[in-house]
Amino acid sequence: MGKKLSITDLLAQKEQLRKKRKRTMSLHVDSLDAEIVIEEPSRVFALEALEMAQDPMRRDKADAHVVYHCVVEPNLKDRDLQKQFGCAEPTDIVDMIFRAGEVSSISGYILQLAGFDSVKKVDADLKNE
Asked: Which Gene3D superfamilies does the UniProt entry name for this protein (predicted)?
């Protein structure tokens, strides 16, 4: 795995940790044969999205909500783009552009940027090997 985090390590990284910038990631979308850029969501937004995914009344819209708000290139919030596609609701653009599996996958990568699924348990058995 890695080394244990100490107070000295945290103090050495203090300025970096205070000035954290949102991370971005490029993803290749097969159906479009092109790349998109996603941005790390805020903690509040990520938790809201996870809560939305747990709610049976909103579960089916959670991934599209995340993708709509966190894809920064192309700008899915562009009103002209939405008008040209005939979107009734702003988030409709997500399902019009991407396949269902792509929406779920993109949403997963966005939540990974927020740190979900990036902490691993250190198993004592593995540690002693």
From this structure: 3.30.2220.30
